[in-house]
Amino acid sequence: MSSKLGNEAKKLVGKNYGKGSGTTEKLLGNIERIAEFMGTQGLQSIHHMKTKHVSRFFNHLKAEGVSASTMANYATAMRRIAHAIGKDNIVPSSNAELGINRSDRYQPKHGDNIKMEEVREALYGKNEWQGLAIDMQRVFGLRVKESLLSQGVVVHNGREFLVVEGSKGGRPRELEVKTDEQREVLQRVGKHIAATGGKTLIPLHLTLKQALKKQANDLHRTGGTKANMANSHLARHHTAQKMDQEGASNKEIAEYLGHGREGVTRHYK
Prior knowledge:
By secondary structure, the protein is mainly α. It folds into two domains: 4-105, DNA polymerase, domain 1; 113-267, hpI Integrase, Chain A, CATH 1.10.443. It has helices spanning 4-13, 21-40, 51-64, 68-84, 113-126, 128-140, 144-149, 180-196, 208-221, 234-245, 250-257; strands at 153-156, 159-164, 173-176. The chain is elongated, with a radius of gyration of 21 Å. It starts with a helix and ends in a 12-residue tail after the last helix. Residues 8-86 form the Core-binding (CB) domain.
C-alpha cells in the first residue's frame, strides 16, 4: 500500500518519465521506498526533505548492504524527487559523493558456453518462442524485451536491417543483418510468428509483462544465471567484444547496443 508521502512524491514527479514500462515501474518503487524512509524521519511532506535526509537515506542503504548498482537507481529516483520539489541542490550531482562506487560494474564478462547452450536447449524444450528469443539475443546482442518485440526487417540500398524496438523508451534502431546465422534465426522467427498468428514472439495469450516475467523465471529455473555465467545479458557482452575485435569504435558499439553514452561500452569489453 502506498504511503501518504509516497503518493505525494509520485504525484509531484509525474508520469512522463520517457522510459520503458519496466524502468518506470522500478522508478516508482524506488520513489515509494524513499518516501517511506522519509516518513520515519518525521517528515510530514516530501517538500520538507533536506540534504541531511538524503545523506541518512544513503547511509541506511549502505548499512543494509545494498549493491552499488541498486544505490545508483535510488540516486536517480532521489534526483527526480528533488527536482520536482525545486531542491535539486540537496542531492549531489555525482554518485561518488553519495558513496556509490560502481567501478566493478565495468568488468567485461565471458559466459560459460556449455552452460548457455544447455539453457538454450531447455528453453526450446519449454516453448519455441522462448528459445527463439534467446537466439535473437545471441546473434544480435539484444536485450530480453527487444528480442521479444523485434522481428521486422527493412532493406536499404540492397542491405537488410533488423528494426529493433527500443526497450528503454527510445526510438527503434536498425541493425544490419550481416551473417548467415542472423538470417537463419530471423527466418525461423518469421515462420514461428506466421504459424502462431501473432505480430511478435510474444504468445497471443500473454501480455508483454507476462512474457518477460515467464522468460525471466524460466531462465533462472534452467540455470541461466549470473552465478552460472549463463545469464541472457552475456550475449550483449559477446556482441560488444566481437565488434571491438573487428575494429568498431566505442560510439559504434554503444549505438548498436542501444546506449546513449559511449562510456558504457567499458561494461562490455
